[in-house]
Every structure is written in structure tokens, then in C-alpha cells.
Amino acid sequence: EDVLYTTFLGPNDTNAEDWFCAANFLAYSNALYVARTVGAGALNATDTGTGHLIKNNADFDSQNVAGTLDTAALAVIAKYPGVYGNDIVVHVADNTNFAGWAYEPNFDRAPAAGELAIAVVKAGALVETFIVSTSATAKDAQGNSLFADDVIARRSQYIFVNSPVLVGADAATGAPMTYTLAGGADGAVPALADYQATWTSVFGNPGDIDIGICITGGSGPTLGAWIVQNIAETRKDCVVTLSPAKADVVGNANPLNAIVAERGVNGAANVSSSYGFMDGNYKYQYDRYNDKYRWIPLNGDTAGLMAYTEGVADAWFSPAGYIRGKIKNVVKLAWNPVKAERDELYKVNINPV
């Protein structure tokens, strides 16, 4: 969870269900791939002040090779889309002006000719330092690239850089360069098609990534059913955990009918597949990052129990019961189905909690 927080920051009112499903899974296991989906209008902050969308490292590589970043005259771009990058300032020096530079004490050595010293400042605090090469063919002793674009893309948590637009000395004064990022935008809330595109591009090809469980988070049964049919059934090497819509169980006077309707002929989760596992509840848990309680779907927990069970027993053991089915970090459930209600849920292949 600490790595999740460091990479994606904490939960907010928009992403809490997705964020806590990921965090809850990590309470049972320790290996998780997370892909962020952005909506229309999302932009990375840049040194020109005009936002520019770079979705991930692969997208950066594609745009870099195509010359898109050179055309836009971009030297430094925030690593992630959103306003998060708008308070990043990047300071760069070369071998001619490093001595006496304000950030000199933060480096073990001075840059040699053809190298740059880069200091990344976030919200007024120094967060990263690098010494990189301006040569695309430069290598270290282990044969790894020392080229600025490659090193920063691989190691920085905050920025991308683009050579040769990136320089370490002002052309007029020779002083170290300062790049202040602006123009980042969060964009609109992602649409269903945005999520589908992310699932397809990141997780659609089993040759690209090895996964065993797909956690649907707070996306609801419509997207969950789509993932079952278009990702899991296509890959045939993973299962999908999904939950009912929040409105079906939280504050609903008749959650049983609402959930069963989701599985009905016209329901969002009207899919029959051995590659899907649907629970029937939400849990109330404490959000320590915002000091409040939230309703969170259980598909992150059910996925975690599957991973835990495979670790302590084997894949064919049921992740249920008093030993292998204990859900963590729960204050209360959205509803507590009695035996007759549980029997009705079983009839439509929903796993009651």
C-alpha cells in the first residue's frame, strides 16, 4: 500500500473505490499491476505551459521517436497527466556552470563534458537528482543507457525529458536552466470506452503481461461483464472479480431484488462465464488518508482472498469460510443476507458475503 500511495498518491472522492480495491487486495497479497485511465482533456504539465498528453512510458517512447516532442519544443514533461505536475520545477546545469550552482551540494560529482546534472523540485522540496548524458549512445559500465531521455523515463517518478531541447545552460547568459511546469489538467471523468481501451491495450495480450486475476474496482457490473467477455475469455488464463452497483446494496431497502436484476436478462451483469466471480456486497471501511469512512466494493478483497488461498493452500481450494474467507478492514457490510437471501443469490451465481 505504501508503494501504491507513493505512485498514485492517496484516494479522493473520485477514485476512492478503485484505490481501496487495489489497497485491499494488497492486504492479502503483494503483487499488483495498476493501470490508470484518464478521460478527455487530461494533459501533462510541460515547461512551455501548454499541456501535452503522454499516457505512459510506451507513449513517451512513441512520441519521442516520431519527433512529436521536438515539434512542440518540449524539454520537460510531467510524468503523469493532471494538475499534480503543475508545481514541479526542474533545474539543469552542465559542466560549465555546475560549480557554485545552488544544487551542487546534492550531487556526488560534477557532470563531465556532454553530461547534465538535473535536480527535480516538487512543491518546493528537492525530490530527485540525476547526472545523465546528452549522447544517445552513452552507456554505463553495465551497458545500460546513460542518455538523458532513457534514464529519466526509466527512473524518475516525476518527469520525462526530451533531448536536445533540454539544455543545461542559458544561451544568452550561460547560467543553469530552470524549467517550470504548468498546463497540467485532470480532464473529464473517464467514460466507459476509456476504461475499455485501457483494459484492451494494457491487459488484452497475454504475451505482454502475465496476470491471474482482474480486479474491476468501482467500475460496476457493466464494465465488469465486459472485462469477463473481452479480456478473460479471450486470454483464457485469468478470472475477473466484480461487485454489484453501489446503488444496489448501499442504502437500498431491497438489495436482493436489485442484485438479482443485475444478473437478469436485461441486467448489466447478464453474462454466464467460468471466468467471472461476482460478490454481492460493499463494505464500510476507514480512509486514514482523509479521516473518513467510505463504502468500498468487495471485489478487491475477493481477489486478495483468491491470491492468499493459492499461497497457503492451492488454486483449487475455495477462498471462503472461517479460515480462508476472512475479509479484512471492514467496519460493517452494506447488508447482511439471511439464509433464504443467500440461497437466492446462489441461484444466479452470485457469491454472498
Could you provide a short overview of the structure?
The protein has 353 residues and is an alpha/beta fold. The chain has 12 helices and 13 strands. Strands 4-3-2-6 form a 4-stranded antiparallel sheet, covered by helices on one side. Strands 7-8-9-13 form a 4-stranded parallel sheet, sandwiched between helices. A 3-stranded antiparallel sheet has the order 11-10-12.
Number of helices: 12
CATH topology tier name of the largest domain? Rossmann fold
CA-based shape: elongated
Q: Using only CA atoms, what is the Rg? A: 24 Å
Helix content: 25-40%
Order of helical and strand elements: HHHHEEEEHEEHEHEHHEEEHHEHE
* Fraction in beta strands: 15-25%
Q: First CA to last CA: what distance?
A: 24 Å
Number of strands: 13
Count of discrete structural domains: 2
Main sheet: strand order: 4-3-2-6
User: Please, what is the average pLDDT?
Assistant: 92
Largest sheet: 4 strands, antiparallel
Low-confidence stretches: none
At CATH level 2, the architecture of the largest domain is 3-Layer(aba) Sandwich
CATH class of the largest domain: Alpha Beta
The class by helix and strand makeup works out as: alpha/beta
Structural commentary:
With 353 residues, this protein is an alpha/beta fold. It has two domains: 2-37 and 190-351, 3-Layer(aba) Sandwich (Rossmann fold), CATH 3.40.50.11780; 57-180, no CATH class. 30% of the residues lie in helices and 17% in strands. The protein contains twelve helices and 13 strands. The strands form four sheets. A four-stranded antiparallel sheet has the order 4-3-2-6, with helices on one face. The chain has a four-stranded parallel sheet with strand order 7-8-9-13, sandwiched between helices. Strand 3 (115-122) and strand 4 form a beta hairpin. Helix 2 (16-26) runs parallel beside helix 10 and helix 6 (192-203) packs parallel to helix 7 (220-235). The protein is elongated and about 80 Å long. The two termini are 24 Å apart. The mean pLDDT is 92.
